[in-house]
Amino acid sequence: MLRKGAFSLVILLILGFMVSAAVLPNVAMAKDEDVIVLKLGHVAVPDNPYALGAAKMAELVKERTEGKVIIKLFPNAQLGKQEKLIEGLALGTIDFALTTTAVLGQFEPKLLVFGFPYMMRDRAHAYKALDSIGMEIGKNLEPKGIKVLGFYENGVRHMVNNKRKIEKPEDMEGLKMRVMGTPVYIELMKSLGADPTPMAFGEVYTACQQGTIDGLECPAVHIYQKKFYEVNKYVTKTAHTYESEVLTMSMKTWKKLPADIQEILVQANKEALDYARDLAVEQEAGFFKMITESGVCEVDEVDLAPFKEKSKAVWVKLESTVGRELIDQIQAIN
Fold first, then answer.
1. What is the tens place of the pLDDT at every residue in 292-310?
2. Which CATH class is domain 35-331?
3. Cβ-based neighbours of 55, under 8 Å, separated by 6 or more
């Protein structure tokens, strides 16, 4: 048996342990209070060029704030599809999101112009237009709770199908093609005689595999990384659209951050944007090479002139949505 003094000592030790156990979690929480954790969602795989751009920004922000700001990345639609991500920004439940101009255009229609077929002459033209006119239009989203930080790249888009080789617009006739559920891509397919079929991106591989759709349009990065080349026979390099992936931020989050943190975010984003764009260009040729080498799907060049002519119908159809002045302004950029 324990003596009275020894028993008292044991009781004191037990009580001391219990108090320590209760206090320790609060100490950890107190330390964590100094760390700002922000969530960034997108729908791509982690090694997509724009996803790697987001990772680069997160790395720079952590480094330059000495670990006081941590941006956690949620790829593969873990936080929801693009529409849900944008809604989350407005509500303040998500801090950052990467979404296409096609989807963001549902909240600011003028942004749709950047996805018009053959609106951009080349990447240099796209960068100039997006970094000037695009950023100015993006300010219209701020009263809706969304801040545009920059236009990352989602690639130059091409036709992919499992039915037949596409050599001219007439070869698109009757093909059931998956599109994003936005006016630009729906009207594009109509102008080429195809049947536009809006569908969630996550359902496309299975739909191609089962023959629910005949094909889709998307950039080389998705054709390869999402393995669409496995379930289609033909890639036609129509280069019909340069599509950007817009890095957006919740205005609620932005306003809560001190000025020095805001400035670090802005500068880190600029560097990450350049990094992601360079990476996208560098990887594109490699993706086409790997698709060809798979032996499953062929990659074909095509005369773009007839496709440009046919798809001008999209410009005519949607001119009233974005305004003729805006179209002319973008086209005038050298």
1. 999 999 999 999 999 999 9
2. alpha beta
3. 46, 73
